[in-house]
Amino acid sequence: MLIFNKLIYWIGDKPTEYELENVAYINDVEALPFGMGGMLCVNVQEPKQVEGILKAFYQQQKRWSWAVYTTIETPYSRCVTDGIFDLTTSYKAWQNLRSRLESVPLVASLDPLIGWLGINRSRRLTAMKSLESSSIYTYPLIEAFYPDIYSTYRYVLSEKARDILENEQLLDRIRVCSHCNSGHLNYVEVCPQCGSIDIEHQSSLHCFTCGHVGQQQSFQRRGKLECPKCLTQLRHIGVDYDRPLENHVCNQCLNLFVEAATMSQCLSCDESMKVDELVVRKLYRYRLGEAGEYIFRHGKPSLAPELSIKGEVEVSFFQNLLAWLNKVAIRHKEHHLLLGLHFPSLDEYGKQHGDAKLLSLMDQFTRRLSEIFRDTDICCQFKQDVLLVLMPNTEKSSFSALQNKISVLGGQIEDEDFELNVFSWTLPQAIEDGVAVWLETLVGDIYVTR
């Protein structure tokens, strides 16, 4: 519910350059009232203190609906607030925010990220550079709203794939370790032959008379250049001698070479790899996408998902459809099949190979699913690592053939770490506590079998 008072809540030092009306001065975010549509201003001068107050603020429910300002800008506040407090423009923006909240249906049940971006059109989801983070960049707002998320980057990519978010501007492009996703990397030149880091730049000379190649210092004789092997005096470069292109030497294998190879060493896990083996990660600023706009305006996803294996439906829609189909099966004595596809190593795969490669793998798999399932089969991403497929008018006896086809499909995936387990259940079922509870029980049994 909306906060009915029109007080501005102010934490920190009182303003000296102007007087505020209808303001409540507080010392802690715990003193803030519960409810939606309030306004907070943080007036402290230490960036770490600003960050601490804002993190504590967003730990409370429904704070995405508040207008939030600071009196100094920090990298963190730039990502989670509405900017620097201005007496005129900030108050007007707050009133617009409250009006927008009142016009949104089912506003209390909105996803925090969709709500935060939807009630103020100037808001953007922005990445913050932090050397304290192993991944270098994080999305602080995602961390604030969903503290249990393992990877904010992976979450943002998945929301982008669902059209909840839309790219606005590329902020940076970085490379991260292909083993642990850390962005803390050291690039070092190594010998292209043995891979040793013990290499040096060397000025060499090449005697045309005998073909001897050696360090320039070894040719110095009584202030002149003289070949140490054939004792020929070297007067004119290009006539008596030249400088070879190989201007580096390895102190381990004595290899002479023109250009060193470059290797990358992860400072987090100590793994070494070639530069082209690193994972390229693009960091964008995002605005609310088309699907996010629809959810914000209507309070729920579109009610007309694509009912085919080519388009995943929302969990709530899938549950309602399953409940209806189960009743139809009981009444008309039909038989339907529900498959559960479990990817037990999915999270570990993301940690080792990176989020972009993980999403690419899942996209590759779901595309190939459409080749073995019928167009009338319906797919739902029930959990991050569990995909459910509803197959109407399919007998249990068909499961073995389907299992073989899925095994063949799994074998075609171009990755040795790919792992897939398949489960099946038949309809009708005696579902007494509701489909949601029944499905959670089934998925719970899947995890127990690991």
Task: Note the topology.
Blueprint: E1 8-12, E2 23-26, E3 39-43, H1 47-58, E4 67-70, H2 77-80, H3 87-103, H4 112-118, E5 128-129, E6 137-138, H5 140-145, H6 152-161, E7 165-176, E8 185-190, E9 199-201, E10 204-207, E11 213-215, E12 220-221, E13 224-225, E14 241-242, E15 248-250, E16 256-257, E17 261-266, E18 272-274, E19 279-288, H7 290-298, H8 315-332, E20 336-342, H9 346-353, H10 355-372, E21 378-383, E22 386-391, H11 399-412, E23 421-427, H12 435-448
Helix pairs in contact: 9-10, 10-11
Verbal overview:
The chain has 450 residues and is of the alpha+beta class. Among the domains are: 8-164, no CATH class; 303-448, 2-Layer Sandwich (Alpha-Beta Plaits). 30% of the residues lie in helices and 24% in strands. The chain has helices at residues 47-58, 77-80, 87-103, 112-118, 140-145, 152-161, 290-298, 315-332, 346-353, 355-372, 399-412, 435-448, and strands spanning 8-12, 23-26, 39-43, 67-70, 128-129, 137-138, 165-176, 185-190, 199-201, 204-207, 213-215, 220-221, 224-225, 241-242, 248-250, 256-257, 261-266, 272-274, 279-288, 336-342, 378-383, 386-391, 421-427. It has a four-stranded parallel β-sheet, with helices on both faces. Strands 21-22-20-23 form a four-stranded antiparallel β-sheet. A three-stranded antiparallel β-sheet has the order 8-17-18, with no helix packed on it. The longest helix has 18 residues, at 315-332. It is flat.
Number of strands: 23
Helix coverage percent of residues?
25-40%
Using only C-alpha atoms, the radius of gyration works out to: 32 Å
Low-confidence stretches: 303-308
Q: What's the mean pLDDT score?
A: 85
**Strand arrangement in the largest pleated sheet:** 2-1-3-4
Shape type: flat
Which percent band covers the strand fraction?
A: 15-25%
Structural class: alpha+beta
Oligomer: single chain
Q: Helical element count?
A: 12
Q: What is the distance, rounded to the nearest whole angstrom, between the alpha carbons of the first and last residues?
A: 43 Å
Largest beta sheet, briefly? Answer: 4 strands, parallel
